[in-house]
Amino acid sequence: MTGTPLAVEGLRKGFADRGATVQAVDDVSFDVREGEVYTLLGPSGCGKTSTLRSVAGLERPDAGRIVIDGTVVSDTGSFVPPERRDIGMVFQSYGIWPHMTVFDNAAFPLKVGKAKVPKKEIRERVESALAAIHLSGYEGRMATQLSGGQQQRLALARALVRRPKLLLLDEPLSNLDAKLRQAMRAELASLQQELGVTTLFVTHDQDEALSMSSRIAVMQNGKIVQEGTPREVYQRPATRFVADFVGTTNFLDGTRGTGTLVETAAGTMDVPAVADTAAKAGDPVVLAVRPEAVLLHAAEPGAVPNTVKGEVDRVMFVGESVDCHVRVGDGTWVTRQDPRLDVAPGDAVWLELPGDRLSVLT
Ligand SMILES: Nc1ncnc2c1ncn2[C@@H]1O[C@H](COP(=O)(O)OP(=O)(O)OP(=O)(O)O)[C@@H](O)[C@H]1O
Ligand SMILES: [Mg+2]
């Protein structure tokens, strides 16, 4: 029987910690579709690795059901061991064997498995896996003679030789330096697409999650708090936690007024998105706006709605943009502007908050 590559339902996993229980995974459910990169994103300790390890069979869940390609691999009373699950996995620390050559590292899963793979087929599969990750010609090298990025790709080849239904990646780029990490991000994404292998990806890095995922599940304290495409999660965060964790966000407390108006300490704002919420007139709401969505005017604009006056607090030039912090009342707003903007601390400025760029958290 075939089905969704991965279905997780009501997954729970707790760990005993000095007499108490840490609920690492607390009722987590999600489906991963054919060919997509589904990412678990969240801060350290939120339960990403525990979820991934449960899918791999390296942890025994306390409750819930895990189905890989139509086969129940974990349920009350049933448990398929990791080596019999149709998966490939890359850990944070690659787990490359230093005493083995590149070839032997990549061939390992085919040699240890129950199903004896003929020598000729091992050679063919390893060669095609190494070709896919651009390491052809390196077969005889010792693994320690590879660069960090090459080791990372080798770990990937090893995860792929068995042609798994599902690829599990736990922070596979976190050991690389910033530059290589960025290059590998693009490479990994195009490789995944070429191979079309369904992937469950774990990261705490929001840029990585946004740039590489088909869909993202944001986790907090063992739960999925929002699921959506990168755009949905970034542009329409469901909670303050998501808005804060996925990128930088300015928050503004307010009260819904008549129509789509919201009263705030910085003035009355017209916020179309408030119409989509359950908030009624008089209910408290929180407005959220991204730094790059705020338009900064160095001179007082005419009759532009949603404009507040402030004073430049700090100007940080970061090359491709300039991050200008602006004091408005008791708060400070973070804005991201064109690097040609020429303002200095103490200058009076006007911040325009375009209505369609304001999210509403209730
Ligand atoms: N073997 C274990 N024994 C006890 N507690 C554990 C064990 N493994 C994980 N935990 C706890 O479960 C919680 C979730 O851990 P998990 O490793 O899943 O987090 P994570 O989201 O992967 O974090 P990180 O980004 O730091 O890797 C944490 O509080 C962690 O301390
Ligand atoms: Mg982890």
Quick structural overview:
This protein is α+β, with helices and mostly antiparallel strands and 362 residues long. The chain folds into two domains: 6-241, P-loop containing nucleotide triphosphate hydrolases (Rossmann fold), CATH 3.40.50.300; 249-361, Beta Barrel (OB fold (Dihydrolipoamide Acetyltransferase, E2P)), CATH 2.40.50. It is built from eight helices and 21 strands.
Topology:
Elements: E1 6-17, E2 20-32, E3 37-41, H1 48-56, E4 63-68, E5 71-75, E6 78-79, E7 87-90, H2 102-112, H3 119-132, H4 148-160, E8 166-170, H5 178-195, E9 198-203, H6 206-212, E10 215-220, E11 223-228, H7 230-235, H8 240-245, E12 250-256, E13 261-264, E14 267-270, E15 284-289, E16 295-297, E17 307-317, E18 322-328, E19 331-337, E20 348-352, E21 359-361
Parallel strand pairs: 3-9, 3-10, 7-8, 8-9
Antiparallel strand pairs: 1-2, 1-4, 4-5, 5-6, 10-11, 12-13, 12-15, 13-14, 15-21, 16-20, 17-18, 17-20, 18-19
The structure holds adenosine-5'-triphosphate and magnesium ion.
